[in-house]
Specification:
Number of domains: 1
Strand content: under 5%
Shape: rod-shaped
Number of strands: 2
Length: 136
C-alpha cells in the first residue's frame, strides 16, 4: 500500500483507539457517577431523616409537656370546684333555703366537676344542697 493507505490505516487505528477509550470510560464512569449521585442523594435523605426525627422528638417533648400541664390544670380545677362546693355546703349547713343564684352556681360548678371526672364526697353534698328550698 502506499503512503496514503498507511496514513488511512494509522488514522483508523487512532480513531478506533479513541472510540474504544470513550466507550470504556463511558462504561466505567457512568456506574461510578451513578453510585456517587445515589450516595449523595442517600446522604441528603439521611440528613433530612435525622432532622425530621429531631423535630419529631422536640414536638413529642412539647406535647408531653402540654399534656402534663393540662393534667395539672385539670387537677387544680377539680380541687377549686370541690372547695367552692364545700364552702357553699358549710355556708348553708343549718339552713333550709338557698338563693336561686347560688343554686345556679352550684349546678354550673357541679356540671363542670363531673365533666372533669370528679368523684368524691361532692355528690352527697350537692344532693343535700339540691334538697334545700330555693328562694329569690
Amino acid at each position: 500500500m502506499g503512503a496514503l493507505g498507511d496514513s488511512i490505516i494509522e488514522y483508523s487505528k487512532v480513531v478506533s483507539s479513541i472510540l474504544t477509550l470513550i466507550t470504556f470510560v463511558g462504561f466505567v464512569i457512568k456506574p461510578i457517577r451513578k453510585k456517587i449521585v445515589n450516595w449523595i442523594r442517600n446522604s441528603a435523605d439521611s440528613k433530612m431523616i435525622i432532622e425530621n426525627a429531631q423535630q419529631l422528638k422536640e414536638i413529642n417533648e412539647k406535647m408531653t409537656s402540654l399534656v402534663n400541664e393540662s393534667e395539672a390544670s385539670k387537677a387544680n380545677d377539680l380541687c377549686m370546684i370541690r372547695h367552692a362546693i364545700t364552702e357553699m355546703y358549710y355556708e348553708h349547713i343549718g339552713d333550709d333555703t338557698m338563693r336561686a343564684r347560688e343554686k345556679e352556681d352550684l349546678e354550673s360548678l357541679y356540671e363542670r366537676y363531673e365533666k372533669l371526672g370528679g368523684n368524691s364526697y361532692v355528690r352527697q353534698i350537692v344532693k343535700e344542697l339540691r334538697e334545700k328550698t330555693t328562694v329569690e
